[in-house]
């Protein structure tokens, strides 16, 4: 049986009458990348900050690496690494000095130059933090979260505000953590990030967990199936297609049809056949796969929006 | 190296790399010193104080001697002169009147253990910087004289030996004020440092490490004190080399620097704790410290200001720090220095204590 590194039971966090975390329970297995996915105000950061010993829970029990967060926070802090949301290091220290500063906070820490090498930051070793690009700053943040060789790494919205290239760089760094055997707890509101990185995803909405599973499992269960899209069809083609394809609908010049697992291939064949034999004009035909965005939309009726806490 | 020493080392490194902060902290006091020194202190180094002794008693003579023994002013008798007109004409910056029956009134007050009804009158021209120093000197000598006459323990005295070597000019007056302003910068360091680190998420990061907030505060008080001390060195060296001042740095001075730093750092920590963000915190602190800089006896004596500003000056902690430094370093009025040290010391302990108690980087 895989060891559980985090166990959360009936966790509640209230601010006055406002409940930001509403009786949630989950566990994280050793060596996996576990993601909290949810929009602004879902309670992701509050939950993760309770686990990092930064905030105090109103009620519920939380064990991190076998330690109770209420009694053993000092021991937990020595064994976890954290990249907080919107983290920025010391502007007037260079990359080496920033990592070294945090390394010295721990009784035992890794060699700073080895961490720099691991995160591929050798070229920027002596560059001031303020002169780094957004992606490199986040990579330094990841490097800092590794100074104590943690068993568990918390990354809170690690790619918010980064350009696509920088996001990819951070993703590579996170994947590398998993390869090194670290357990990673990721919070994100980017569904593609959760899909690409996470072994398991927990979808949070208004402080509650509304779904949990692997990304593909969630998509299969809640994504509503794949969609066949035949774009830019003339009127005759549209009529023929919606009569021939089960559950076909028309949106503008496009024909859309939800594909179930049983008839997906058949529906695609029928559509291609009608277009070919009837000499109709259609611009393109493709299948759009469901995403975690669809999962969230189907579960909540809302879209995942940019944001954080 | 522990987190504690690492924090000290890297905070100082960050400080010295930020040229803007270095300028405002270390060099701006020099600019202030030169600016105000030349604006207000462009007159002759020696300060002439004309006096009229309308009493002619042993007592009044003794007071004159006390004033003369400080060496801080050139006393000139103006018995046959129209000093009032000379002051209006701008020929002199201040004059002193010892009223008739001065000695008798002082003796009566001494025997009846009450306040004397006969006060020394000093008239001065506010537009002349030297008058500010004169007022300050007369006040201090009067305090010392009162204490001596009332046969109490001589807590307040004028150190004639040291004072005799000093010819007090405006730069002498200004130097302790500038040093007090340097010490007050601890409030900016505390507010700016804490709110900035909180804004950029560094406190959240640090609170997830084994490093504690108390260790952080401990490291910071060393850093802030170091920077404050460095900021004091430049005005001291400049005043010594360029203006010939000979400030007497003694134990009281050192204790005032430490207590003053603790006092303003404590205030800064309290401010930072309740501020929303660094911008609003720094603005609020500037709005308070900037006026205090001018009305706390730093550039001009408190006695020269309108009554309502004097009222504010009396509740300004900078006033006591500035006065204490002036008494311990320049005038040698150690009794006054100890009194001010006691006030600054108590405020330092209380405010820093409150600051440490309210400081917490763990979020709710």
The major sheet of chain B is characterized as: 4 strands, mixed
Compute the average pLDDT of chain B.
83
Low-confidence stretches of chain B: 153-167
Overall residue-averaged pLDDT value of chain A: 89
What is the strand content of chain B?
A: 5-15%
What is the strand and helix layout of this fold?
The complex is a heterodimer of chains A (309) and B (364).
Chain A (H helix, E strand, L loop, with lengths): L3 E12 L2 E12 L3 E5 L6 H8 L7 E6 L2 E2 L4 H7 E4 L11 H9 L8 H7 L15 H12 L6 E5 L7 H16 L3 E6 L2 H7 L2 E6 L2 E6 L1 H8 L3 E6 L3 H10 L3 E4 L2 E6 L4 H14 L6 E5 L3 H9 L9
Chain B lengths: L2 H15 L1 H22 L7 E6 L4 H12 L4 E4 L5 H6 L5 E5 L3 H11 L8 E4 L4 H21 L10 H4 L6 H30 L2 H5 L6 H31 L7 H24 L3 H18 L11 H9 L1 H15 L2 H25 L6
Parallel strand pairs in B: 1-2, 1-3
Antiparallel strand pairs in B: 3-4
Helix pairs in contact in B: 1-10, 2-8, 2-10, 8-10, 8-11, 8-12, 8-14, 10-11, 11-14, 11-15, 14-15
What do these coordinates show?
The complex is a heterodimer of chains A (309) and B (364). Chain A contains eleven helices and 14 strands. By secondary structure, chain A is α/β, with parallel strands linked by helices. Chain A has helices spanning 44-51, 73-79, 95-103, 112-118, 134-145, 164-179, 191-197, 215-222, 235-244, 264-277, 292-300, and strands at residues 4-15, 18-29, 33-37, 59-64, 67-68, 80-83, 152-156, 183-188, 200-205, 208-213, 226-231, 248-251, 254-259, 284-288. In chain A, the strands form three sheets. In chain A, strands 6-7-8-3-9-10 form a six-stranded mixed β-sheet, sandwiched between helices. The radius of gyration of chain A is 23 Å and the shape is elongated. Chain A starts with a strand and ends in a 9-residue tail after the last helix. Helices cover 35% and strands 28% of the residues of chain A. A four-stranded mixed β-sheet of chain B has the order 2-1-3-4. The two termini of chain B are 31 Å apart. Chain B is mainly α and 364 residues long. Chain B has helices spanning 3-17, 19-40, 58-69, 83-88, 102-112, 129-149, 160-163, 170-199, 202-206, 213-243, 251-274, 278-295, 307-315, 317-331, 334-358; strands spanning 48-53, 74-77, 94-98, 121-124. Chain B contains 15 helices and four strands. Chain B folds into two domains: 2-39 and 169-358, no CATH class; 48-162, abc type-2 transporter like fold (3-Layer(aba) Sandwich). The interface between A and B is medium-sized, with 35 and 26 residues.
């Amino acid at each position: 049986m895989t060891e559980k590194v985090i166990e959360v039971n009936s966790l509640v966090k209230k601010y006055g009458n406002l409940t930001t975390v509403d009786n949630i329970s989950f566990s994280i297995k050793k060596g996996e990348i576990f993601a909290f996915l949810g929009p602004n105000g879902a309670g992701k950061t509050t939950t993760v900050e309770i686990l990092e010993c930064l905030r105090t829970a109103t009620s519920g029990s939380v064990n991190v690496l076998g330690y109770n967060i209420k009694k053993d926070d000092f021991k937990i802090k020595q064994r976890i690494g954290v990249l907080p949301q919107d983290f920025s290091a010391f502007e007037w220290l260079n990359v080496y000095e920033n990592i070294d500063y945090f390394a010295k906070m721990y009784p035992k820490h890794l060699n700073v130059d080895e961490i720099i090498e691991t995160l591929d930051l050798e070229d920027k070793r002596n560059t001031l933090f303020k002169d780094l690009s957004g992606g490199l700053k986040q990579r330094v943040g990841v490097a800092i979260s590794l100074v104590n060789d943690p068993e568990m790494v918390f990354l809170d919205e690690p790619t918010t505000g980064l350009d696509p290239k920088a996001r990819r760089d951070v993703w590579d760094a996170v994947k590398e953590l998993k390869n090194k055997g670290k357990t990673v707890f990721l919070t994100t509101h980017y569904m593609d990030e959760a899909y690409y990185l996470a072994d398991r995803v927990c979808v949070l909405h208004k402080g509650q967990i509304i779904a949990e599973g692997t990304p593909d499992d969630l998509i299969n269960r809640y994504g509503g199936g794949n969609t066949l899209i035949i774009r830019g069809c003339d009127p005759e083609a549209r009529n023929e297609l919606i009569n021939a394809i089960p559950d076909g609908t028309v949106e503008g010049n496009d024909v859309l049809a939800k594909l179930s697992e049983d008839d997906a291939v058949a529906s695609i064949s029928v559509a291609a056949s009608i277009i070919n034999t009837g000499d109709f004009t259609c611009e393109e035909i493709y299948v759009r796969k469901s995403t975690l965005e669809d999962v969230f939309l189907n579960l909540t009726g809302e879209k995942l929006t940019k944001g954080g806490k | 190296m522990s987190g504690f020493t690492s924090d000290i080392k890297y905070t100082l490194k960050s400080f010295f790399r930020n040229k803007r902060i270095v300028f405002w902290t270390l060099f701006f006091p020099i600019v202030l010193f030169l600016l105000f020194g030349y604006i207000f202190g462009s007159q002759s180094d020696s300060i002439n104080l004309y006096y009229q002794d309308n009493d002619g008693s042993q007592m009044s003579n003794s007071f004159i001697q006390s004033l003369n023994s400080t060496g801080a002013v050139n006393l000139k008798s103006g018995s046959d002169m129209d000093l009032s007109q000379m002051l209006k004409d701008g020929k002199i910056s201040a004059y002193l009147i010892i009223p008739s029956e001065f000695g008798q009134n002082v003796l009566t007050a001494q025997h009846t253990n009450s306040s004397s009804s006969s006060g020394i009158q000093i008239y001065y021209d506010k537009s002349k910087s030297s008058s500010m120093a004169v007022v300050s000197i007369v006040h201090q000598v009067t305090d010392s004289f009162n204490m001596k006459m009332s046969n109490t323990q001589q807590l307040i005295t004028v150190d004639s030996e040291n004072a005799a070597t000093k010819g007090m000019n405006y730069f002498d007056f200004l130097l302790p004020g500038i040093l007090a302003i340097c010490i007050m910068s601890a409030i900016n360091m505390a507010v700016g440092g804490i709110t900035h680190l909180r804004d950029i998420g560094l406190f959240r990061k640090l609170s997830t490490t084994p490093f504690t907030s108390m260790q952080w505060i401990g490291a910071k008080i060393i850093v802030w004190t170091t920077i404050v001390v460095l900021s004091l060195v430049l005005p001291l060296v400049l005043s010594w080399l360029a203006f010939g001042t000979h400030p007497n740095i003694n134990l009281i001075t050192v204790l005032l620097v430490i207590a003053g730093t603790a006092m303003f750092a404590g205030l800064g920590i309290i401010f930072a704790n309740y501020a929303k963000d660094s911008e609003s915190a720094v603005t609020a602190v500037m709005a308070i410290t900037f006026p205090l800089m001018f009305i706390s006896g730093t550039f001009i004596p408190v006695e020269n200001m309108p009554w309502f500003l004097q009222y504010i000056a009396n509740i300004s902690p900078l006033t006591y720090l500035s006065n204490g430094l002036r008494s311990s370093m320049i005038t040698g009025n150690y009794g006054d220095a100890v009194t001010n040290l006691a006030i600054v010391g108590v405020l330092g302990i209380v405010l820093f204590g409150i600051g440490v108690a309210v400081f917490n980087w763990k979020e709710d």
